[in-house]
Amino acid sequence: MNSWIFSSPPSKKCAAMHELSIVASLFEILEDKAKEQKAKKIILVKLKVGKLSGLVSDCLQTAFDAYKKETLAEDSKLEIEDIPVKVRCQKCQAEIVIDDFILACPKCGSEELRILEGTELLLEKIEMEI
Amino acid sequence: MGKKEILVLEEILGSNKKVASEIRKKLEEKGILTINLLSSPGSGKTTLLERIAERLNQKYKMAVIEGDIETERDAERIRAKGVPAWQIITGGACHLEAKMVAKIFSKIPPDINFLFIENVGNLVCPASYDLGENLRCVLLSTPEGDDKSKKYPKAFITSDCLIITKADLLPFLSFSIARAKKEALEINPRLKIFVTSALSGEGVDELLDFFLSSLQKMRSHA
């Protein structure tokens, strides 16, 4: 999986792969926060990644590890919490956690489903050494 | 020296969303409907835009932002139709981001009705980036197969409209329009679906009617 990333280290300016471009945006926030807190280094970064975000945790991890070199986060750990997809039926108000795509509410058959969770891509918290 | 934990709860692509919202607001104020076209490479985005340009020319004005990893080719094709077009060469990046569109913003003539943004050919990454569009359209060409929506769900889930292209090739392929529609609607029931052929012109007028009614809707809400 993503073997090219090992054979040719990605440039930080060019986001040639989806997860890498997301990690580049993540590092913009990390740099701001570290500056704000006058942090010496970043120890832990925790993300919440929805199943419908279109991102793969393993690929994010690989991209993070490639990107963090020579930054304040060089020795940091990335923790990713995968968020399942949760929908609410607009008709019977049932809340359902789904694995696959569904067309209709399994309880009442209505097709009016609203996605409550599962699309997010959040930086939840950062642990730093100050 | 001590440890400190800070709770951030920020969207990682929040800065892109912010720029996109500003672009959308400014374009809406000018009465311009913005349409972001997503698809895999070679599905016919530029050719569809050429057909749209030919048909819109009489009554409505359009402009096009072209995104590609390399070359000005697509922008040149659009300019040949008498339509203003700007090429964003990403130099490797696999999608357009709102700040790239923002750089072109000052060049967009205020008297146009439609701004089309042709994204980099890729069904994955462009789906994550709001460019300030009012409508997102995903194209699926018949040679690609009718099973793509569930394989690349995000592009289809985040779109308003699915444009099936190259319908003139249907007699030679096993592509089923009914199956493509069913699969796409299963993951996004609000998708408007158009079956088009840039070669015969099939479906292009219906698509334009949809863009025009979306423009009118946007203006009546302004």
What would you say this structure looks like, in words?
The complex is a heterodimer of chains A (130) and B (222). Chain A has 130 residues and is an alpha+beta fold. Chain A contains three helices and six strands; from the N terminus they run H-H-E-H-E-E-E-E-E. The longest helix of chain A has 19 residues, at 18-36. Chain A is elongated, with a radius of gyration of 18 Å. Chain B has eight helices and eight strands. Chain B has helices at residues 14-29, 45-56, 73-79, 98-104, 148-151, 153-157, 177-187, 204-221, and strands at residues 3-11, 33-38, 62-68, 85-89, 114-118, 135-141, 161-165, 192-195. A seven-stranded parallel beta sheet of chain B has the order 4-3-5-2-6-7-8, sandwiched between helices. The model of chain B has no long low-confidence stretch (mean pLDDT 95).
Descriptors:
heterodimer; A: 130 residues; alpha+beta; hypothetical protein PF0899 fold; 3-stranded antiparallel sheet; 3 helices; 26% helix; B: alpha/beta; Rossmann fold; 7-stranded parallel sheet; 36% helix; globular
In short:
The complex is a heterodimer of chains A (130) and B (222). Chain A has 130 residues and is α+β, with helices and mostly antiparallel strands. Chain A contains 3 helices and 6 strands; from the N terminus they run ααβαβββββ.
The poorly predicted ranges of chain A are 1-16
Query: How many individual domains of chain A?
Result: 1
| Number of discrete domains of chain B | 1
CATH architecture of chain A: 2-Layer Sandwich
Structural class of chain A: alpha+beta
Q: Report low-confidence residues of chain B grouped into runs of 5 or more.
A: none
What secondary-structure arrangement, pairings included, does this model have?
The complex is a heterodimer of chains A (130) and B (222).
Chain A lengths: L3 H4 L10 H19 L4 E10 L6 H11 L9 E7 L1 E5 L5 E4 L14 E5 L3 E9 L1
Parallel strand pairs in A: 1-2
Antiparallel strand pairs in A: 1-6, 3-4, 3-5
Chain B lengths: L2 E9 L2 H16 L3 E6 L6 H12 L5 E7 L4 H7 L5 E5 L8 H7 L9 E5 L16 E7 L6 H4 L1 H5 L3 E5 L11 H11 L4 E4 L8 H18 L1
Parallel strand pairs in B: 2-5, 2-6, 3-4, 3-5, 6-7, 7-8
